[in-house]
Design brief:
About 4% of the residues have low confidence. This protein is an alpha/beta fold. The protein has eight helices and twelve strands. The protein is globular, with a radius of gyration of 18 Å.
C-alpha cells in the first residue's frame, strides 16, 4: 500500500486532500501540527511521501521538511503553499522539498503531482547494499545507479530522490547543454503541472552540495538563456 502523510491544520482542506488521495488508491496518515507529523513519521517508517502545509502553528512545514531531510529518510516531499506566497515556494524547495502545489488546487492536479513524485521514488529502496556495477564516474564524483548514491572524493553526499535524478541526467550527458525544458521533462515528466523554475531551484540546491564554491560553480555550469551542463 502506498502510504502518504498529510500535514494540514485546516480540517476541511485536510479532509479534501485525504479523500482524493484515498480515491486514487493511497493510504493516508493525517497530522494537524508539525509535532504530530514528525512523531507519525517515526511511527510509520513505510511512509514514502509527505504533503506538508507551509503555514502552521508551532513547527511549520519548512521545519518539518528540514527535519525529514536531516533524518536521511528517502521520502518524497510536496509543500502546500498559498497563491500569494511566492517566496514560500522557493524556500520550501531550498529546504529539501521535491515539489509544491499552490492552493487552491484541483483534485486532478493534486493526484497527478503525487502520482508523478511517487513514480520517481517508488522504485528506490530505503536502503541497498553497495555494489560496484552500474556506476557513472566523473572524478572526483562517483554516481552509483544501483543504490542511487553520489560520492565526492569518496565521501557520500546526501541527495533527495529528485536531486539524484537531476544529477544522473547531468552526469549521463557530460559537456552537453541541457535546456531547462529538457531537464523538466526528463525529471518531472511530461504531465508535470508546475513551473520551470523548479529546475533552477534544484540546481541551486545541488550546487550547494557538490561545488567547491557554489558562488562560482565549476561542475554544474549555466548556459545563459538556455539551461545547464555538466563539466566532466
Amino acid at each position: 500500500m502506498r502510504k502518504v502523510l498529510v500535514l494540514e491544520d485546516e480540517d476541511s482542506i485536510r479532509s479534501f486532500v485525504v479523500l482524493n488521495l484515498q480515491r486514487a488508491g493511497y493510504q493516508t496518515v493525517e497530522a494537524s501540527t508539525g509535532e504530530d507529523a514528525l512523531e507519525l513519521m517515526k511511527q510509520n517508517p513505510d511512509i514514502r511521501l509527505a504533503l506538508l502545509d507551509v503555514m502552521l502553528p508551532g513547527i511549520d512545514g519548512f521545519e518539518v521538511c528540514r527535519r525529514i531531510r536531516a533524518s536521511g529518510k528517502k521520502v518524497g516531499i510536496i509543500m502546500l503553499t498559498a497563491r500569494s506566497q511566492e517566496m514560500d515556494k522557493v524556500t520550501g524547495l531550498m529546504t529539501g522539498a521535491d515539489d509544491y502545489v499552490t492552493k487552491p488546487f484541483s483534485p486532478a492536479e493534486l493526484t497527478a503531482r503525487v502520482d508523478a513524485l511517487y513514480r520517481r521514488i517508488g522504485d528506490a529502496p530505503e536502503s541497498a547494499p553497495p555494489v560496484r556495477s552500474g556506476e557513472i564516474s566523473s572524478p572526483p564524483f562517483l554516481l552509483n545507479t544501483r543504490n542511487r548514491t553520489l560520492e565526492k572524493n569518496g565521501q557520500r553526499i546526501k541527495l533527495t530522490q529528485v536531486e539524484y535524478t537531476v544529477m544522473k541526467l547531468l552526469m549521463e550527458n557530460p559537456g552537453k547543454a541541457l535546456s531547462r525544458e529538457e531537464i523538466l521533462e526528463a525529471v518531472w515528466g511530461r504531465d508535470y503541472y508546475g513551473e520551470v523554475k523548479i529546475v533552477d531551484v534544484n540546481i541551486r540546491r545541488l550546487r550547494l552540495k557538490v561545488e567547491d564554491d557554489p558562488t562560482t560553480p565549476t561542475y554544474i555550469t549555466t548556459v545563459w538563456g538556455y539551461g545547464y551542463k555538466w563539466e566532466a
